[in-house]
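Re: the request from the purification team.
They wanted to know what the chain is likely to look like in 3D before they choose a buffer screen. I agreed to run a prediction and write the result into the notebook, where they can find it.
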Amino acid sequence: MLQQEDRLSSDVMLSDGTLLSQLVDRERREVSLRVHHDPEIFELEMERIFTHSWIPVAHESEIPNPGDYVRRYIGQDSCLVVRGDDGEVNILLNVCPHRGMSICREEEGNSRGFTCPYHGWSFDKQGTFRGAPFEREMYGDLLRRESDRLVLTKARVGNISGLLFANWDPDAEDFDDYLGEFKWYIDAMFKRTDGGLTVIGPPQRQIMKSNWKLVAEQIVDAYHSRTLHQSLGQLGVFGQNPTDSKSWGLGGINVASSQGHTLRCVNLKEFLSIEPGAEDRPVMEKLAGMPPPGVDANLLKQLPGNLTEGQLNLLAETPPAVMGLFPGANFFSFLSHDGTEAGGLGPIMMAHAWIPKTPALHELVSWVLVERDASQELRELTRRATIRTFGISGIIEQDDAEAWRGVQRSVGGPMGRRSTGKYNARLGINRPDDFEGGGDVYAGTSRDDAQWAWWSRYFDVMTS
């Protein structure tokens, strides 16, 4: 158990006498690798982060009809994401208030309500208690339907581009405040057309043998591509020049927020041969030359009706490619090898959530996203390119998973746990004059600034 001299104190003393705040050196920008394996720290994360933060659990298109539900996790807590009769989404703790049994053990389905398999207590789609077997004989008039002690615990619900987030804390910041300036970027990535996004099939789910933070903090780390993702260079996706860092994706624009959100934008000027005068073309002409991933010529016409001029310029010149929302979500939107013999490029559209299981295990949940009104051909191309890049068999995900597992194996020993992760490659805030997005902007060779913003937020939350 964690030992605390004062439970009201913001810092925490671990069982060996180490203060949690001592595991980060903010001046040198180093983090003790103990954070990836220590069970005390893991339990503290579950309490301080995952019960008070906005966590992705499902996409609304997975539960289109009243009574549709999926069973997911918020940290280590099982929950039910249910479509009510009124069309609203309810996110309910999958724990019977009677004796703690899971009221639902199916992964997905459609139901008028839920009945606990232990003693038969029943609840409706809003989590309200509806009755129990032999209720009068057992309890007389003790069980009152309206009692807060008998309802299923309900989470707050947030929705961005159809992706549903949950938060157990009624006093936590509102969802829009949580997104902050990053909502502008998310809308540019995924709220581009009239029909919006949907998902293809159920999400892929896989167990990774590593700590969840190794995924979260890597989102905008472009540095590892030169070594870990050399196979992408062989496929011609990038890395054509072994001595040019921009060729390996290190050039571009990184963005971070005080909330710990991170974003990586590609600078198309560094990857494309721009003809003289091409930069002065109208923005829609630029987008017609290279439409955003997942958008064809027909869908492209809908962009001006859904996005601002600034968002259109963002997609045309420095499109967002990889985004992370603290603590447990990321998004991908870019072009990659489509897996065909012809070696073409296909659109990557994916959302990730990572669910901590133990200090050394997490579940990675992956949704393939497509525009709801995309043609069948474009939907299939998106599906194929996305799952061959990410997901269980994805060429990038396989590389990353091996690195995460390698770190996890190395830092568990008595000497490895004394090592530190170093994030001292600094670029500094360097906002281009014509870049309209908010947050702290770092233009140029990708360094550690945005990753460090994630770690700063992590320790702020853990010690306050």
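For the purification team: DSSP finds 14 helices and 22 strands in the chain.
Please add any questions underneath this entry.
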